[in-house]
Structure prediction request, 532 residues.
Amino acid sequence: MGKYQQRDRIARLISWGHWFTFGNIFLCLLISLLYVENALPTGSSLGNGYLLISWLGHFAFLPFVIFIIALFPFCLIIPYSKILRGYAALLATVGLFTLLFDAIFFRQYGFHLNTYSLNQLSLDAEDWFAGGSFVLLSIIILAFLIIFALQLTLANLTWKRLPSLQGKPFAKAFTGIFIASFFISHSTHIWADANLYAPITQHDDLFPLSYPTTAKSLMARHGWISIEQFQNRQDQLTQAQQLTARYPVGPMLCSKDFVQGGTVIFAFSQIDVAMQAALQSRVPGLTQHQGLHLGHVQLEMAVMTLLYGTPDLYSASLKEQNALPAYVQIMNDYGTPVRFHRAGEFPELELPERMQASLGEWQQSRTATSGLQVIFVTPTDLDDVVTYIEQYHGLSNQVIITGLVPAEFTGNSLRPEQINVPLYTLGTHDYPRRLTTIEDIMPTALQPYMSCAEGFRNFTNGLALNQPGRTFPRVYTVRPNLFIFEAQQTTVIDSGGDMLLFNAQGDLVPGAVPPTPVFIQSLRELQRFAEQ
Prediction:
């Protein structure tokens, strides 16, 4: 082969590589719509515009970089079209398959693929149905083969049609759009980062392999600002923001389950050791939860957390909105009333006015009823509670007794054991989980009466006590501390942002931090009820 023929062949292969990459850019853009669809609402035209140009620029840039690094050199080294077409099809298949898999995983879990992600997905597949890991593996192999067939078709088609494709004007137009989108998106992000403009900066972790240019690094490099000044300004703005609850998160699409009898929840302000002994000796068949059952250190926050099933971060907003718990109206529509009572000595509850209006005096209402009763009592009401259970237990499907605030709280809530409160149930219940919270009480009580399309996740982060399957990681807040529970460790984040990690034995592990995906997933779970 002559020198000029070799040069022409290489030029043709490079041209083909451009068109093959061009086709894959549009495939990437199509798959990446899954990220865009899952993006948080921006609430502004500028934020929506940034999302559009960032999507165009980023997912046009990724295939081009792969072409430059992994395909272009081989056009020079191995100028044989059949080999290159097969290699390029395989390379593009791996890239597109990884992108598709990551997009699906991101929609489900809120973070991108890594070794932790794959393990999590495998465990969840087994929880969904028996043999789930095998079915998942089969789907993965089938998807890979389909994409590979598509890439072989694209590689051969662009090679055969190369003479007719060359010189097409639309290629230059699209290339200009992609390049402009890439630079405009990064320039816009610099401005948004400098002004802490959330509708834009909230998308920083949306796309995989995305590292938008920040004002902090750029301006500090040129000496225009100091990192300390920027961080101080960011902290001031963050602290000034108020967390507004969106409650419920979505429509409560529920159907009625027909159940005879009622459910009674006794929420004690405190249950000390003597009361526990009295309950177990005087109420036959009472079952005590053997794991951790987390309450709160403030009675008001504990009541709100129990009734609404939401983290205490939203208590102030729910009170301002004067919102009733989302399940009350649905239960009433079903003819299954929800009644709230308090004993005379139970402290005045700082609840929304609508809630206070429905809070009856238990001394005047000590009769068994159908539906759901939530009764707030104090240690002095123990005899009355026992008498009530003895008289009316046969008319109730469920009796749940929980403490709200630890009886012996030392003032330091950094260890989960310090906010542990007793939990008792009456009847033949199997509650195998070793970690529960007072957020779990209302889902447990409502489970016999109604079934909802999203479970109960539209109004609570809680899980019914008998909900099967793996429940880690879980996140729980006792302001100002945040707890992240994993199967073998617990992370506590205090008000200053410092992290303390305890192993399964409760020993402090110096310098350890939770895996990043666990941390991100926990924060997203906390933010589900936040109005964007």
Summary: The two ends are 64 Å apart (CA to CA).
